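Hey, I'm writing a tutorial for new members on how sequence and structure tokens pair up, and I'd like a real worked example in the thread rather than a made-up one. If someone can provide the structure for the chain below, I'll link this post from the tutorial.
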Amino acid sequence: MRSCRRLALLLGVSTGVGISGAAAASGPVGRFSRAVVEVGQPFDYVLSYAHDPAEEVIFPDSLAAFGSFEYVGRRWLPTRTENGRSFDQAVYRLRTFSLAPVQALQLPVLVLHEAGDTLRLLPPATQVRLHRVAPTLFTSEHAGLPRLRTNYQPLPLPAAFNYPFWLAGLAGALALAGVAWALYGRRWRQRYSRYKRRKNHLYFLTQFARNAERFTLSRSAPLVERTVVLWKNYLSSLENTNLSSLTTKELTQYFQNNEDVRRALRTTDRVVYGNLLSEDAQEVDAAFQRLRDFAERQYEVLLNGQ
């Protein structure tokens, strides 16, 4: 086949040029690689054409009309030129799923002329026969249904895990959980938040009371400082802000110049920073009580606001 041959399929294109007797006599030849095939089994259809070396020949490609056959692939053989004749050949890999007992195929070969005319040459139709794979059960020799054997024993089968059922149940449970969360999720979050705040509040009261008792026994300035730090940290978690780094003046301003906060922190500052342990223990106890009362009021305000 000439190197300038096009691989596109040009079927049904004709300019009215007829097939001469000489061309018909030396036309293309198509044949199957086997005479009998089975359903779905690949086989070859060989299309060959001997022509003048000056002719430009086009063989069909994958878009050709293969009739009842299905195209699988193809391969081209190199053009051979001997004694003034060129020989081209293409092998098409086909298969069939048709149940027709006899099936035929004709693939055309196109010859292009210099004037732009196209000559369409058809090889003689070649046939292939379909092989019967399944045997015929009911014939004249064996009429009626086959006899059934009665000595078979049923065997128990192990129970298989029902994946579709459990997956459907899991999807339904997730859907119900999503609906429940959409309806009651906010209420549940609020209850859980109240539970955590109540638990933290009880822990703060317990630790605060323990420090106050220890101060009564030891009158230690570091203990007063730890108690104030405990109070600041609790209010920081309650207010959701950082109050531990604020000074007494900044804390008083933050809590809108609350009298209890101002007086209590002033007393604790004299003990912590002034090292004035001569302060009356009752005055420090009163400062602790003011800080505790203020923390409880803040807790109640925040709890009622939710």
